Every structure is written in C-alpha cells, then in structure tokens.
C-alpha cells in the first residue's frame, strides 16, 4: 500500500511539474533545412530552462501563415509569436489591436533589451517613428547573386570572377548557353530582386515618400526609364533563352540548388540550402548593377521576416516570449544561426564573433549580404514599407509574366502595375489614416 501511495505521489509531482511549464505557440513559414533550424532553436531554448516550452508550428508560406494568424486572432486563438515576412510589416503596424510591440514585451518582463545591439539596417526597418521596436528581427536576409562555379568552369568562365554588372550577366549567360546550359540565369522573388532591391541598389525610389517610410500617402514609381530599361533587358534575355522564368516567390530556389540553372538572384538565406544539398560548388556575389547609373551600387533592402507578438495573452506567457527572444539574441546563438543559414547576423556582437572566428575567410562570399546591408543608406534605399504590399507583389507578377512570355511590353506592364498598385495604396491610406 505504501509503495502504491508513493508511486501516486511521484506521478502527481511529475504531472504538476509538467503543468507548471508555460507553452509558447510559435507559427512560422520555414520548410526544409530552415524548418529544421527553427525546430532546433526551440529545442535548444527548451533544454536551456524548465519554465517555458516553445512549440514551433509550420503554417505554410508567408502569405498563408499571415492569413491564418489574422483568422485565428479574430477567433481568439492566435499564437503567441507569428513570423511575418518583411512586406507584411506595414499591415502589422496598422493592426494595433492585434499586436504588442516587442519593446513593450521585453520591458514588462524585465528582460534587458537594447535595440542598439541589433544590426542598424535590420533593427531600423522594424522600428516605429517614435523609436520603439515593434517586432523582433529574427531572420533577415537580402538579395544576392548566387552562381554555380562548376558550370562556370565548364563554360570557360572564371569561377572566381562572377559578373558584377547586368551587361556582364548577359555575356556570362550567353557563354553558359553555348556550353549547353538550358537555364543560364533565373531569379526567385522577381518583385523583391528585380524591382524592390534593384531600386535601392541603384539609389532610385520604388515608391514616393522614401518608399513609404515617410507616410501612408506614398505612391508607386517603379515605371521610371531605368526600371523599364531593366525589364526590357530581362525580356530580351528571355527571348534568347538566357533568362528562364521559373515562377513566383521562392520557386526558383530549388531550381538553382538542383543545378538546373547556373546563375540566380535570390535570398542570401539560400546559402544554407546550397551548402547542404547542392552537388556543385556554389559561389556568392553582390547583386548586379548598371555601371552607368549615378549612385549605383548603393545598398540592398531587407528581406526575410521578423517575429511579431500577438495580443491577448497572459503576463506569464509574455515573460516566456521575452526569455525566448533574449535567448535568440545571445551572441553565440545569433552567430550560430547566421553561419548555418545565410541570414544576416542578428546583432553586431554576433557579426563580430563570426568575423573573429574566421568564418568569412573560410567561406568566401558569406559576408556579401552583410556588406550590402551595412553601406550608408539614403532616403531612397532605407527599405520599402507599403500597405497592401502582398497584393501589390501579386499584381506585379500578373503584369510581368506576359512580358517574360513575349506577349507584353515592359513599359505597358510596369505602367499597369503602378496604376493598379496605387489604387490599393489609396484604399489602404483611407482605411488607416486615423
């Protein structure tokens, strides 16, 4: 009987300790190798303490997870933490009742939080005009140029001299095609790489009001002569089989990693996938530019995502969120994540730690994203913060896809996209003016 009683007491104590652990729900959009990284982060944090348990859940693509979270918030069962891609920032900022600024979460939990510790170009994008950081800059990337060094060698190109300018990309593509490559150049995230980052890299506005940074009355301007010229050049490359359009968003990532396409513009975070899964030696370089454009190259804009804290949770749960963010910010943790994924270093300390470790020298090109982002920014290149940006990107895809197919002119497509996008911006301004 005594044995039975002690066994029951022991089981009860285990049950109480399990119940005492506060669960933190984290919805994210990381699949494949990056999904494993996210799961490892949660596992490491959970093992580092006993009070909180972070539960990561994959909720589909960035637009899908954002839609799911909005529906969950309305139903009263939103997650504690939501990963939102950078173009959703203006929408999240306007959703005041749905979110709690990260600065406020950290302060109430009495967790040391210094926004100045984070890489300025990253932190600045997620900071309100009053200086308060709104979301946690978790996985920030930027656009870079990836290339297949083995394919370069086979085409008689120098694998240590990637093309730096768009005319050089066209010449390299012609040589790759002549050597038998069916897909010399492709790109993922066409709107981000070929219009948004392209604009900042050439110190040219994508939209007025500093690309929306200075007000809701911003309007799209990416139908300038420079933008038209670039899209026309890509259309000509498509006609000649030098540029092959593979689809929207990140569809082309795997097409490059598989070796099907030899050159590729996309996220710096594709580095982790190339390193792990590619059967060739990958190379990294800066985004190409037009050498005759004054002020180019300038700096690229932020991509990736940040972590937003949803409203309506218990104080104890917010303490867990704050502890998790503090864990992710530790220099050794942030450095490990940067080196594993190709995302930008989260903090200055993690960048310095990575540099001192010799990682950049051992892995040439891995500092390209950092170098592109820490250049001096201008009002035209700080970033793009526009309402309805998810829908605007869809409009751009719809207008440009006939261009790649040879059925529409570049100017007509960009004029249409600007007009349709501006209609959305006007509606967003009216709805959020107060």
Give an overview of the whole structure.
The chain has 20 helices and 9 strands. By secondary structure, the protein is α/β, with parallel strands linked by helices. Strands 1, 2, 3, 4, 5, 6, 7, 8 and 9 form a 9-stranded mixed β-sheet that branches. Helix 2 links the parallel strand 1 (22-28) and strand 2. Helix 5 (102-108) crosses helix 14. It is globular and about 65 Å long. 47% of the residues are buried.
Short description:
The chain is an alpha/beta fold.
Key words describing this protein structure:
434 residues; alpha/beta; nine-stranded mixed sheet; 20 helices; globular
User: What is the subunit organization of this protein?
Assistant: single chain
- Shape summary: globular
Structural class: alpha/beta
N/C terminus separation:
70 Å
Count the beta strands. 9
The residue-averaged pLDDT reads 92
Computed Rg: 23 Å
Count of helical regions: 20
Along the chain, the helix and strand elements come as: HEHEHEHEHHEHHEHHHHEHEEHHHHHHH
Low-confidence segments, given as residue ranges, are none
The profile of the biggest β sheet is: 9 strands, mixed
Strand content: 5-15%
**Helical fraction:** 40-55%
């Amino acid at each position: 009987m005594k044995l039975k009683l002690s066994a029951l007491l022991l089981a009860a104590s285990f049950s109480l300790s399990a119940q005492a652990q506060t669960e933190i729900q984290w919805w994210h959009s990381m699949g494949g190798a990056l999904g494993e990284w996210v799961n490892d982060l949660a596992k490491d944090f959970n093992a580092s303490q006993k009070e909180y348990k972070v539960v990561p859940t994959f909720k589909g693509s960035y637009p899908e997870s954002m839609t799911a979270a909005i529906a969950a918030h309305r139903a009263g069962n939103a997650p504690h933490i939501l990963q939102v891609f950078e173009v959703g920032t203006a929408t999240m900022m306007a959703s005041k009742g749905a979110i709690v600024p990260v600065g406020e979460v950290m302060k109430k939990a009495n967790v040391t939080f210094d926004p100045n510790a984070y890489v300025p170009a990253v932190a600045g994008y997620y900071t309100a005009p009053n200086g308060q950081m709104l979301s946690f800059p978790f996985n920030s990337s930027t656009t870079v140029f990836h290339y297949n060094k083995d394919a370069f060698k086979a085409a008689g190109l120098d694998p240590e001299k990637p093309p730096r300018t768009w005319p050089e990309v066209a010449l390299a593509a012609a040589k790759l095609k002549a050597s038998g490559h069916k897909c010399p150049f492709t790109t993922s995230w066409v709107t981000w790489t070929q219009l948004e980052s392209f604009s900042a890299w050439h110190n040219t506005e994508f939209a007025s009001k500093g690309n929306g940074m200075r007000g809701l009355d911003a309007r799209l301007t990416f139908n300038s002569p420079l933008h038209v010229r670039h899209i026309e050049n890509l259309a000509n490359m498509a006609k000649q089989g030098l540029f092959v359009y593979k689809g929207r968003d990140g569809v082309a990532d795997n097409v490059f990693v598989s070796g099907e396409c030899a050159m590729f513009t996309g996220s710096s975070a594709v580095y982790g996938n190339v390193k792990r899964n590619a059967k060739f030696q990958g190379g990294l370089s800066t985004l190409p530019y037009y050498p005759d454009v004054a002020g180019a190259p300038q700096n690229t804009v932020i991509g990736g995502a940040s972590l937003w804290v949803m409203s309506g949770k218990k104080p104890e749960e917010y303490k867990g969120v704050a502890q998790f963010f503090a864990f992710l910010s530790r220099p050794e943790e942030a450095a490990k994540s940067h080196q594993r994924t190709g995302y930008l270093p989260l903090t200055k300390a993690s960048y310095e730690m990575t540099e001192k470790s010799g990682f950049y020298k051992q892995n040439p090109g891995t500092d390209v994203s950092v170098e592109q982002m820490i250049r001096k920014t201008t009002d035209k290149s700080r970033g793009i913060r526009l309402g309805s940006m998810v829908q605007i990107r869809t409009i751009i895809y719809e207008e440009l896809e006939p261009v790649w197919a040879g059925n529409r002119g570049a100017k007509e497509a960009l004029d249409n996209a600007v007009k349709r996008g501006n209609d959305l911006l006007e509606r967003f301004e009216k709805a959020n003016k107060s």
